[in-house]
Amino acid sequence: MFNDSWLRFAAVMIIVGAIIQSNALIILATLLLIVIPVAWAWNRVALWRVTYERTLSEHRVFVGETIDLITRVNNRKILPLAWVKIDDQMPASLVPENKSLAPAYSPLSGYLSQRAALGGFERARWSYRIPCNQRGFFTLGPAHIKSGDLFGLFERAWTSPRTDRLIVYPRVTTMQDWGLPPKDPLGDAKARTPLFADPTRPRGVRDYRPDDAPKHIHWRATARRGELQVKVYDPTISYQWVLFVNVATFPYAWQGTDPELLERVISLSASIAYFGSEHKYSVGLIANGTWPESDQRLKILPSRAPDHLRHVLEALAAITSFVTTPLETLMRHESANLSWGATLVVITGVVTDALIAEMLRLRHVGRRMALISLDENWTADESELEGIIVRQAKSPKLKGKSDEIENDF
């Protein structure tokens, strides 16, 4: 790399050449003095009209799937690039096949290093296969690009600010894979009553349809809008599951986290959410974990919107292991704000006395409760948990349903 020593060295060569009358030294020093400004000018425009692109085959995938990553660097000028180096920042858990990541300043990321030499109006292309073996919200980029002159005296750097987001959903498997009843995992199918509109709970108005009963016509709204309007009512009973997901994997937070158990809890939650959505339940999600780089707790109220399942799976993909509050405390605060007919489903990898006590309290006040446990050290006492649906889940095989539902997103 260039520094002031090069100029001093050239001056010394000229002086020595003049003293010993060596034309070779004088010519060499002169060439060096010519090369330095040429190299400086070359370096100044080395990254001018140079672009870098990153393309993902998918932006939403499930654990176990593989995506294609294509990167391109384009030199859109006549001046060639003697060399260009691209360090594209990547999450440490997204390592391409047959290529390792260079170390980065953060232990959770690395650099996908790429090098090329480009002529005028030439471009280079790289293709990678990336297995997605860990759920999460991942950011690819930014890319740090370096180039310089032909002689290696100067170097110029530029950061491409563009980033790409990749969401890896947790693995989704069938109920029988978890050892749960395949058609009725919570045993509440028989308790579901027919859904009908409650005239005492008006919600709004909508346009009239030919199959609407005349008694539901809202005449005042019709007069205001100039076309027939009918009343819309809330249902008397809605089919709701609210999943209370416990990200704690030990009885006390200071004991740390069991990553493998946490992933099983989240995968089980995703599988139940998918099952509920598939069977026309309104599924909500409340967890004592947080969004990445935030202390905001996860809370998604039940809904039957077409994209609601995607929001639930995205929340489960993003959830961290940081425990904001014990799950029993969270249930005590949130249960009062939930629909009375909803089934509160506790999904946990560790069962504590405090959690059982809170579930019994909610059951005694009339709440419909269900407990799905992955705690291998806990055995249910049916006499103590009377009125609470209890399921002991087991770890599923790796093959699941994720490949069947990927087209839904």
Describe the model.
The protein is α/β, with parallel strands linked by helices and 409 residues long. It folds into 4 domains: 4-44; 50-169, Immunoglobulins (Immunoglobulin-like, Sandwich), CATH 2.60.40; 176-191 and 237-408, Rossmann fold (3-Layer(aba) Sandwich); 202-235, no CATH class. 24% of the residues lie in helices and 32% in strands. It contains 8 helices and 19 strands. The protein has helices at 4-19, 23-44, 219-225, 259-278, 308-318, 327-334, 353-364, 402-405; strands spanning 50-56, 60-62, 66-75, 81-91, 102-103, 109-118, 122-131, 136-140, 143-148, 155-160, 164-169, 197-207, 229-235, 240-245, 282-290, 297-300, 343-348, 368-373, 389-392. Helix 4 (259-278) links the parallel strand 14 (240-245) and strand 15 (282-290). Helix 1 (4-19) runs antiparallel to helix 2 (23-44), helix 4 (259-278) runs antiparallel to helix 5 and helix 6 (327-334) runs parallel beside helix 7. The longest helix has 22 residues, at 23-44. It is elongated, with a radius of gyration of 32 Å.
